[in-house]
Design brief:
single chain, 458 residues, alpha/beta, GMP Synthetase, Chain A, domain 3, four-stranded antiparallel beta sheet, 14 helices
Length: 458
């Protein structure tokens, strides 16, 4: 099926504020108040962004879901979110703009609630709760200090709005008086058209976006885009060749990397810092302090000690896992949190990642947890044992693979059809390997990291 054309919409605060106020008034008219939740599962658009920000400006918490989820996945998350209202189609979204104008705060009083899977595959909803107006201002100023947003900025959004970075950069730009370009989906050709037009001054790309941009057939060898003052990237490890090409195409002073998660932001790294320390993801953001603590790894990676990354943050940067006190408590030690990633700090405080969460796969900037996929495939009675794992991939950073012990009647075609019915596209394995057995340790634990070698793939 051919993809729909990419819609690019320009938005500034003067245009957006009346519509944001109408959304907020519509929701308040339905009885919602600060702290209540509204779930959105719609394609990225200017209307969706205005609805999300309008909701946030009165402290009602928007819950953003990936619209490509199959109904089974979406319904499970909607049940977890327990939202007062669910906006699941364009008609319902547009209806919100007919409400009376509500009184809005100067800055958003919350961030969208987003889901991030846990290592057990059980989805967790990350929420900041509702801020006071002084906290909301501190959040806004924190972002503006890092990225230098101002009224001259025009930010090109490439990531879908259910990714935290999209609403963070959009909000920071809009409330600094700048404008934004909202795309319905990422397409390298459409992004190139915008870059060539000279409209955008800032943008964010995951490494996969950059690779598609640089390999587009219309891009000439000597074409560069010096009009952007900021090109940020994150979301997955960036190949050195892609990083260096970004330096060449955009100019080194414009290119910044950062390391963070849905839960919070850790570092920022300029091109000059990366040149001095290749492989680093930078130093702590202003107002943060990084430190590491030994983590005893499980028996699938040996008995060595690894260092878990912790980040001490201001009060306004706190989060919790919605209605999951145990997970929230595990994530925090006083004013510092960790998402389980591993790394090392050098003597100057520069962070080098040595591993993501023990089994997390980052493919095209999206997080995939093997346990979630394995649980889905185990619903097939023919599946006797399964291991979902990652292999390096030039395009995706990592590609999702599955090794399966199954009865003879199970075919790869059947597996792919089952995945299409039950998993979003980015989660579906790109490779299936049928095996007679999988490697297990003495306690019966699956030796996940040994599987690629076990299969002769590395």
């Amino acid at each position: 099926m051919a993809k729909l054309p990419v819609l690019v919409e320009r938005l500034d605060l003067e245009l957006a504020l009346p519509k944001m106020a109408a959304v907020a008034g519509s929701l308040q008219g339905k009885g919602l108040r600060a702290g209540d939740r509204v779930a959105f599962s719609c394609e990225s658009s200017a209307n969706l962004l205005m609805a999300v920000l309008g909701t946030s400006l009165v402290g009602i918490i928007p819950v953003l879901l990936n619209p490509t989820l199959v109904q089974e996945e979406r319904d499970a998350l909607l049940q977890r979110a327990d939202a007062s209202i669910e906006i699941l189609d364009t008609e319902s979204l547009v209806s919100l703009f007919s409400g009376p104008a509500a009184e809005l705060a100067e800055f958003p009083l919350t961030r969208p609630m987003l889901f991030t899977s846990g290592t057990t595959g059980f989805p967790k909803a990350v929420t900041t709760g509702v801020w006071t107006e002084s906290q909301a201002r501190a959040v806004f100023e924190d972002e503006r200090e890092v990225w230098g947003f101002d009224a001259e900025d025009c930010h090109l959004i490439n990531s879908p709005l259910y990714h935290s970075v999209a609403t963070r950069f959009a909000s920071g730009t809009l409330f600094s008086g700048g404008s934004i370009l909202v795309t319905s989906r990422f397409d390298a050709g459409s992004a190139l058209e915008v870059l060539r037009s000279g409209q955008a001054t800032t943008s964010f790309f995951v490494p996969t976006h950059l690779q598609r941009l640089f390999s587009h057939p219309s891009l000439s060898e000597d074409e560069c885009f010096s009009g952007l003052r900021l090109v940020a990237h994150a979301g997955a490890p960036c190949p050195t060749s892609t990083k260096l090409e970004a330096f060449r195409r955009f100019g080194e002073p414009a290119v910044f990397e950062f390391y963070g998660s849905t839960e919070g932001q850790f570092t920022i790294c300029s091109a000059a810092q990366w040149r001095e320390r290749p492989g680093t993801v930078g130093r702590a953001r202003p107002g943060r302090r990084l430190f590491t603590q030994p983590l005893s790894l499980l028996d699938d990676v040996g008995g060595d000690q690894a260092q878990e990354i912790w980040c001490d943050v201001p009060e306004f940067a706190r989060f919790e896992y919605f209605r999951d006190a145990a997970a929230t408590a595990n994530a925090w030690k006083g004013s510092a949190f960790s998402v389980g990633d591993l790394g090392e700090l050098d003597d100057e405080g520069y962070l080098f990642l040595t591993g993501r969460r023990s089994d997390l796969i980052i493919t095209g900037g999206s997080n995939v947890y093997p346990a979630e996929l394995e649980a889905v495939f185990r619903k097939l009675p023919e599946v006797q044992d399964i291991c979902v794992f990652a292999l390096p991939d030039e395009t995706w950073g990592q590609r999702v693979c599955a090794a399966i012990v199954a009865r003879d009647s199970l075919s790869e075609t059947a597996l792919r059809e089952f995945a299409t019915q039950h998993l979003a596209p980015f989660k579906r394995p790109k490779e299936f390997h049928f095996v007679g057995e999988l490697p297990h340790g003495p306690t019966g634990k699956l030796l996940r990291r040994a599987v690629p070698d076990f299969l002769g793939l590395c």
